[in-house]
Amino acid sequence: MKILYGVQATGNGHISRARAMGKYLAKAAVQVDYLFSGRDAAQLFDMQQFGQFQVKRGLTFVTEAGRVNYWKSVQQASLRELRQDINSLDVSSYDLVITDFEPITAHAARRAGKRSVAIGHQYAFLHAIPQCHNNVVTQMVFKHFAPAQMQLGLHWHHFNQPILPPIIDEEPLDVAIQPQQVLVYLPFEDQQQVLKLLKPLTGYQFCVYGPGLAIDSDGHISTHPPALAPFKADLASCSYVLSNAGFELISEALQLGKTIMVKPLQGQMEQQSNALALTQLKLALSTEQLSTEVIAQWLQQPHSLNQVQYPNVASAICDWLLAGCNTDVSALSQKLWR
């Protein structure tokens, strides 16, 4: 089998899912070519697993200080280039096209009538799940941004819908848990403002990852640029996770039993809906505004262990793909949630 795998590279969660899926596809000796869009190639890191991959401009959102800037998002979009990339992408040699909310591969497969499967959290929003600030426009985006013949939506709970548990790129690390260690990943916020908020909280050790940060240490705060291996190590050893409300990191944190607080990206319906779902499921706290006081209250209150054991979804999807997708999504969903 030969697969073209498109990945929305705006957030690291899509890439993390592709890492997990790629390992099982490689074990099955499937030939996979990868295409990433939504981020400049120079900003991608630790991509050796994907071999000789393609990078396209695609579409993405511009964020500033924790909020989506829709005007700049429209300004930087090049629909002509997107259309050219879709029309010029040759998918004729592939048996299957997979898209993780990546529009070029998705629409190229549709144009060519090629068999296609969509995998990702965004496709869960095509079902009746907790949603915040949903409207006609957001539903059009979820339905038409990166469509496929079959959609595998992912979420932390099934909500009585035909969706799957999260795909987690998990390689268990045998590390000691540090009771006062906090992993901070707020890439859409002003990083210097985040550091300023954490500085008075000297009773905790903060490992802060974010764009533009250098490897440095200042007492109880260490900073790091985005990097896979050290991030995974700090995630394994920390007790707390403070992050935006992206899907993949929260999934890994839940699997590891971390205490979580999220600050959803303002103006981004998916993250605000994620925060709503987490609070409804009593899996994490959410705040609309970060402050030293809010963070301190979260760290100091009693916490119960919110560890969730998810099945090996990547392996199950790989088996399902290799079997020709011969069972419907509802049956696959029921099997995995059991």
Structural overview:
It contains twelve helices and 15 strands. The chain is of the alpha/beta class and 338 residues long. The chain folds into two domains: 2-168 and 311-337, Rossmann fold; 181-300, Glycogen Phosphorylase B (Rossmann fold, 3-Layer(aba) Sandwich). The strands form three sheets. Strands 11-12-10-9-13-14-15 form a seven-stranded mixed beta sheet, covered by helices on one side. It has a six-stranded parallel beta sheet with strand order 3-2-1-6-7-8, with helices on both faces. It has a two-stranded antiparallel ribbon with strand order 4-5. It comes from Rheinheimera muenzenbergensis.
| DSSP, total strands | 15
Count of spatially separate domains: 2
Termini Cα gap: 29 Å
- Determine the fraction of residues in helical runs and give it as a percent range: 25-40%
Task: Tell me the overall shape.
Answer: globular
- CATH fold-type name of the largest domain: Rossmann fold
Rg, Cα atoms, Å = 20 Å
Question: Under the CATH scheme, which architecture of the largest domain would be assigned?
Answer: 3-Layer(aba) Sandwich
> Taking all residues together, what is the mean pLDDT?
92
CATH class of the largest domain: Alpha Beta
* Helix/strand order: EHEEEEHHEHEHEEHEEEHEHEHEHHH
